[in-house]
Predict the 3D structure of the following.
Amino acid sequence: MNSHKSALSSSIQMYLVKIKRLDNEINPVPLSLLAESLKISPVSVNEMCRKLDEMELIRYQPYKGASLTDEGNLQAEKILRRHRLWEVFLVEKLHFNYPTAHQMADDLEHATSKELADQLDEYLGRPKFNTEGKEIPTGDRTGRNIKSTKLSDLGVGSEGYYFSDELDENVAEFFSSVNLRKGKQLKVLGKTSSQMIILSGVESIHISREIAEKITVAESKTNAFINSKDTTNKERPMQEKTIETKTLKDLKIGQTGVVVRVKGKGSIKQRMMDMGLVSGSEVKVIRVAPLGDPIEISLKGYNLSLRKSEAQDVMVEISGESE
């Protein structure tokens, strides 16, 4: 009965984690679904589930399925913790894409001791989510009391972990280009009624409030929401950001702005968005023709020429420190 106190085989770990993942969809987990997910014969799955039941890691109900016991759930969370920490390391530090990192973590999770997992957790800055926004369990029964809110509701100086969104393809592509992804800790540096300045790692990124409303963050322990008062000296300079809205046509040579929205409609608007003029994109005016048309801008590492009438339909915001 106490065999689970010793090291669990990789096969048993695989079963526990798979049941844990499927348990979020259906409980108890039908053995047919478990067999299909593991790509193992139903007979083998049946035998293993009976063994795990004897070990008091799952409760096996014939014709119904399997569910984790408290001990089985704890063991599954320990494995998931190791797996998701490796995912963060492989994506953030070694720059693997997520599907590859996920496959590699499947092997690494079984060969990782608690001591190594703890060191990895500390090295990564104790992340609460992996790069897909999935929670990293604590693995010690304490759990996480996670509260979520919209990024747009955070006040200046507030922090939160980015774990889900409802972004369209263009914005998601821009976020990827600036390494703003799920699992990142974000901090609000400045905000107005239409825009926010967000710190992600060492990069400050301008995004519209409209976009911020589509991002869900998990509250961090030191978080200060929009209605909270934060008067530390460290945060005061952040609140002195001023943001001015203009059209791209109104920017001077050498001036930089962040796209808030593109007006207009039809094929012209779509063409500008296809060129990268989407919310959150940073643009810089390089030169203007003698008669003011066209306007040459720098966008995402390349130069682009726009007619003055087109630039007038692009709303940008310029931030700076108030005097």
